[in-house]
Amino acid sequence: MDRVQIAVVGLGRMGKRHVHTLLHRTPHAQVVAVCSNQPHEIEWAEQNQEYKTFGIKLYHDYDEMLEQDGLQAVWISTSTDVHSSQTLAAMKRGKHVLCEKPLSTDLEEAQSVIDAAKGYPKLKIMAGFSRRFDASYRDAATKVLDQGAIGSPFMVRSQTCDLLDTTGFFVKYATRNGGIFVDCAIHDIDLTLWYLSDPVPKACWGVGTLQHHPELAASNDVDNAVGIVEFWGGKLAYFHCSRTQAHGHDVSTEVTGTDGKISVNLVPRLNNVVLADRRGMTHEVQPEYWQRFEDAFATEANEFVNAILHDKPAPLPMETGQKVMLIARALQDALWTGEVSRFDEAGTRTAEPKANGHA
After folding, report:
1. What percent of the chain has pLDDT over 90?
2. Could you tell me if 264 and 252 are in contact, meaning their C-beta atoms sit under 8 angstroms apart?
3. Which of 40, 243, 246, 270 has its CA 20 to 30 A from that of 201?
4. How far apart are CA 223 and CA 216, in angstroms?
5. pLDDT at position 175, please?
6. Tens digit of pLDDT for each residue in 268-287?
7. Claim to verify: residue 112 and residue 139 sit in the same structural domain
8. How many domains in the chain?
9. Peptide bond preceding 317: is omega within 30 degrees of 0, i.e. cis?
10. Whether 92 and 151 share a structural domain
11. Is 168 in contact with 197 (CB distance < 8 Å)?
12. In CATH, what number is assigned to the domain containing residue 195?
């Protein structure tokens, strides 16, 4: 049985989970290496019996890892600020790449990766937009785009709302994630482009507030935000981003069309159990994104690996990520400046307002 030899870069929460998925839910993948420049992550990996059992090599140095004999692909799960450089380095060494979204917090830097990828047509290079691989979101796309179940879709309301973090992880992470819209709304924007058939943005508004993490002010960020996007042709999108939900991971999407509406996960559930007691009827909610999208990540991994093995196109085009980032940055600028971010009919940003230094 052919297997793709793959390395996972970054052993934070996400990287560890990707390793687990590749080991146990991706039969045509073989994890041969992991890499991290964080001493505590390497120390953790050195103590991990499973990594020893599977013969996974550990690297402190990314460039050294890329030279490992037989290595075919790299899964990049590091912080956003090194995504582009690590993707470029892997391509130059002939490695296939799946890079977690976004490719960069800088649009020009992200475009340079997309342009460079065109010079390696035999490599499968993609940015990870995991909700495109979720069974429910795919079913909704079939109903909206293929079956015309709601007529002509013209509005999306989508949210990414995370459980309140009390460990300090999020505040530390926020200093490198590009801001709440770039970090949280990126999947919602991608879904919007999918369901509304790649509309051209016209204007973006963004507002936000700090309710639980006042220390985020030092990063010019907020812990709750709302963004609105108007597209040319009369289509609209509304995004709600939050890092402070008390009840759990609350991700949902509604698509409204001329003949109806379709909803995905409007009332989040951990499972199908409902408790009836003196309080009424209650159910539990997934604590974080992994419980909600674990199957989607496995599907993504298998489709990426199969594209390599069978020389098929990468499951998602790189260009999709660039347009998503263009809108995310416009929302972020609107949040920072208090002014509307505008685009011409070709989808090009007009003069960008100067940030006032306050979120």
Report:
1. 85
2. yes
3. 243
4. 8
5. 73
6. 999 999 999 999 999 999 99
7. no
8. 2
9. no
10. no
11. no
12. 3.30.360.10
